[in-house]
Design goal:
alpha+beta, Aminopeptidase, elongated, binds zinc ion, 2 domains, 11 helices, four-stranded antiparallel β-sheet, six-stranded mixed β-sheet, about 25% strand, 18 strands, Alpha-Beta Plaits
């Protein structure tokens, strides 16, 4: 094939139509039925181009979709893993407010289009091209599209790790940093709930009998904020606070939801210990801590850098400059990278606004990005 981007440019309308199909199937992480449906739908598309399908239904969640390509050659070598997710953060009905639309500036909008329906469409198109043009992938390719990434990958993590253990590398179709910048490192992520328990009492008649859980939690909030260490990439965000019942009652209960991010695993362990060991300040108040670290960091390792350098040289052949960055957000790439599997993340279509109202992709980026993915499938 000459420049593969030219091939995909000619198919631009077909790819955009596929993106529209995926965006218009709304798939919030909690919408089990719709997640099952989209997995079935995409399984059908993969089956048409020779994919061997496996659907893992997760009761109470959706369905994880695996599609294997090129496993019939049995050379005993490792596979290449391509990871994505089918769920979005958007509640059902968002499409009415933010319909799929293409602007004259060359952007396409819609819930989940950037994170990451366009990445999934690109993958389908890329595998279709490999089939149609009779190209060979270097290794058997295992596609894994999960249904619970946006809610912490609780049910998919064992499957991701099972496939990663068989893989020479992992390509992750999450959106890039705006500018098309791929991700070679990610912070680890933890979520905690800190619950303060006091004692209720009438605020006017019996204030001395009460223990104010909100005051207790205010002390703890300041202690948590003091754990921030921006120099070492450690952030602690008390993001939600709840507590109390009404203004004339000393509150018996209050709770905080806390987001933790870190680069070094040791920092994650240290912060987790500090949060678990928080001590009550008010006499007779109690604290309960639940949660923990749910994504290990994805370090910008030598292996990740080598995979990125390969991608960069392929991008240069196609005619664009690929850059990389380490980011604070977690993804399923954290799991594969933490196992020592070379991981390149952020391979989706350029755009902006993941999880935000202005979520969009840049249409002109689709052909070269699909070409890059195709070249990676042929080379890695
Ligand atoms: Zn995502």
């Amino acid at each position: 094939m000459s420049n593969p981007a030219d091939y995909f440019s000619k198919r631009q309308e077909i790819v955009i139509e596929l993106i529209r199909q995926l965006v218009e199937r709304e798939t919030n992480s909690r919408d089990e039925v719709r997640l099952d449906e989209i997995a079935e739908y995409i399984a059908g598309l993969f089956a048409e181009i020779g994919g061997v399908i496996r659907l893992d239904k997760q009761p109470g969640y959706g369905t994880h979709l695996r599609a294997g390509f090129g496993f019939d050659r049995e050379d005993g070598g490792k596979q290449l893993l391509v990871l994505g997710h089918l769920d979005t953060v958007w509640p059902l009905g968002t499409l009415q407010r933010i319909p799929f639309r293409i602007t004259k500036e060359g952007t396409a909008h819609g819930p989940g289009i950037f994170d990451m329906k366009s990445g999934v469409a690109m993958l389908i198109e890329s595998l279709r091209a490999i089939k149609t043009l009779g190209l060979e992938t270097r290794r058997p390719v295992m596609v894994l599209l999960t249904c619970d990434e946006e809610i912490g990958s609780r049910t998919s993590r064992p499957i991701i790790e099972e496939e990663a253990a068989r893989s020479s590398a992992a390509l992750v179709l999450e959106p890039p940093v705006t500018g098309g910048i791929v991700k070679t490192g990610r912070k680890g992520v933890g979520n905690f709930t800190v619950r303060a328990l006091g004692r209720a009492a009438h605020a006017g008649l019996d204030p001395g009998k009460g223990i104010n859980a909100i005051v207790e939690l205010a002390h703890q909030t300041l202690s948590l904020a003091a754990l921030n260490d921006s120099q070492n990439g450690v952030t602690i965000n008390v993001g939600v606070i709840n507590g109390g019942t009404t203004q004339n009652v000393v509150p018996a209960e209050a709770s905080a939801i806390v987001d933790v991010r870190f680069i070094n695993p040791a920092d994650g362990e240290r912060i987790e210990r500090s949060i678990r060991n928080l001590a009550p300040v008010l006499k007779d108040a109690r604290l309960e801590v639940t949660g923990g670290i749910n994504r290990p960091p994805m370090p910008r390792s030598e292996k990740n850098i080598a995979l990125f350098e390969l991608a960069r040289s392929l991008a240069a052949e196609i005619g664009f400059d690929l850059k990389d960055q380490v980011v604070g957000g977690g993804s399923d790439g954290n799991f594969t990278a933490a196992m020592g599997v070379p991981t390149l993340d952020g391979l989706g279509v350029d755009g902006a606004g993941a999880h935000a109202e202005h979520e969009h992709i840049i249409i002109s980026d689709i052909p070269r990005r699909t070409a890059l993915l195709t070249r990676l499938l042929q080379t890695v």
